[in-house]
Amino acid sequence: MRFGFTLVDLLVAITVLGVIVALAIPTTRGLQDRLAVQRARSEVEGLYRTARLAAVLHGRSVTLRFSPDSTVARFRSDGQLVRARPGPATWRVSFSVSRDRITLGPLGLGVGAANTSLVFTKGSATDSIHISRLGRLRSTGS
Questions:
Q1: How confident is the model at residue 29 (pLDDT cuts 50, 70, 90)?
Q2: Distance between CA atoms of 95 and 137, rounded to whole angstroms?
Q3: In sequence order, which residues have a C-beta less than 8 Å from that of residue 96 and are 6 or more positions away?
Q4: What is the Cα 126 distance to its own chain's centre?
Q5: In the chain, what are the domain boundaries?
Q6: What pLDDT, on a 0 to 100 scale, did the predictor assign at position 141?
Q7: Predicted TM-score (pTM) of this structure
């Protein structure tokens, strides 16, 4: 009596394993897309909060500039860098923005037309940020 596996047993096991892997790949790709979109959104949220805090603490206006490659906050009066972060393109996330620049006054409130919406997209994952003139930041995701 011999113990072991036949060629047919091995082929069946490999086929079942292949089917399981084929079903799991789209799920992980969607998860990767959602994580990339959340990371890009978090970077922009963090920069906004830092810029608003800097405006209030220093009593000076801060301008935020949003682009695919970077998001930058600078003091408006002298252009001194407050903080720069990588843009959504770093994570291969596309985004659209209603205004590419907003200015926060010394009280942390938006100056001029400061209402802004940013939408981040990768694959089927979408997230958005809405910034009101009063400085309120609201995130929505799917």
A1: confident
A2: 17
A3: 118, 119, 121
A4: 9
A5: 7-141
A6: 72
A7: 0.80
